[in-house]
Amino acid sequence: MKDIGKKAVTCFLVIALVTAFCFGYGCGNGGEGQKTIVLGLMTDMTGPSGSFYASVLYAVQDATRYVNEEEPIPGARIKIEIWDERSDASRIIPGYEWLKHRGAKVILSPQPEVPETLKPFAERDKVPVFTWASSEVIIQPPGWVFCVNANVPDMMQSLLKYVSGQWPNYPIRPKIAYVGWSITPCHSVLHSR
Questions:
Q1: How do the domains of the chain map onto residue ranges?
Q2: What span, in angstroms and rounded, lies between the C-alpha atoms of 56 and 35?
Q3: 79-122 per-position pLDDT tens digit
Q4: How many Å is the maximal CA-CA distance in the chain?
Q5: What does pTM read for this prediction?
Q6: 161-170 LR contacts (CB < 8 Å, sep 24+)
Q7: Which CATH superfamily is domain 3-147 in?
Q8: Which pairs count as long-range contacts for 1-8, CB under 8 Å and 24+ apart, including other chains?
Q9: Residues in the chain where the model's pLDDT stays below 70
């Protein structure tokens, strides 16, 4: 794995680990003075996008191994429970219940439909959900879903302003195409005027 990707996923897991400690979740005896924090990863491993999300699984496993070996929080260990969501929306809620039953107190998912579906359950159960994806449904109103990135439509406006300011033949403005997932404004081509 590239060094920067490893650092990013490790930081993400450390944040999830600290969050679990702050909320007092997921702690079990892992030995003398050891606490084990169970994180649930819900992603597609065998469905249509499984080959794409396999890199997420490998990164999370690698970062978990790194955190357990380096002990950024002394006495804490992470255990990952994995649910294969298969890009099947009907598997999200059963997966959430399965992960909770296995002791997961923090849920991780790179897929946008997972946090969108789990938002009311996370609020009800006070279970933090961390995601690599962002959408208006996830962030408004704020709750127990935490995003690594900004909302795509918000990024588009900043990108348009930046590119038009850097364009060498200004005021001739560029046309920018942007494609995203599950977010209506991203499915169209944006034109600055």
A1: 3-147, 152-191
A2: 25
A3: 999 999 999 999 999 999 999 999 999 999 998 899 999 999 99
A4: 67
A5: 0.70
A6: 163/192, 164/192
A7: Response regulator (3.40.50.2300)
A8: 1/58, 1/59, 1/62, 5/59, 6/59, 6/62, 6/63, 6/66
A9: 1-32, 164, 167, 169-193
